[in-house]
Amino acid sequence: MNTAELLYQSIQSLASPTELAWIADKIKTDSKGLSLAFVMAPRQVAKTRVGNIPGWNWQNSTLDQLVRVYLLIHLAEKEDGKSRIETLFDTAEMNELVALYRALPVLPSPEIWLHRATDAVRSNMGPVFDAIAFGNPYPLQYFSELAWNQLVLKCIFNDKPIHLIEGLDERANQALANTLADFAHERWAAGRRVPSQVWRLIRNFQTDTKEQDLKRLAESVDLNDQKAAELVLQNSPLEAWKVLEKEETAY
Q1: Does residue 36 register a pLDDT over 80?
Q2: What Cα–Cα distance (Å) separates residue 139 from each residue in 80, 149, 160, 219?
């Protein structure tokens, strides 16, 4: 089953007969009709919450977004599909951008959209940034180390849940560990706590101050700092870090 078929299967389970008829009609149109359908989708399809789709993280997504991605897959197959999608990027409002960025990994030749994906990392619109950063395999598969590190650092600087980034541990690297060690010292100097997940990304790399930093964490009065030090020293399973993330966000 290809991606379009998988998405349509989920759409069928949520959409009404009227909505399915509208989708079927638009799929038969040319590239201009598909572009217009992409824009019109929220007026024709409900914003029903989408559950889990195998192999894809669609948390907090809605049926109209799913339909938009489905339409984009068909649009991309048209002869002028790429130029049409570029135009959609240039003219899109926020919710349209969210659907566009969610669709990137399933479009033909995903690598040609790298410039658009890195634009999303620089976006000041939270939902747009989240669409590329969380539950999206595109950065894992196509970002350079520099672009990847910028994505992770922006999440950390803005207190976003980095455990939702696909491939977080797989793409951990020495340059990121060095930057995060410096970040930790800046936070401490300002009298601020360092998020525990920072140490998750340093654990497999040696930094100039790693031993002293772990000693500081172990001697901290904060139980989460103590637990983070223990996890680094034990090189504990990733599930343990996810539990710690949940404990921290509970405060």
Answers
A1: yes
A2: 26, 10, 16, 36
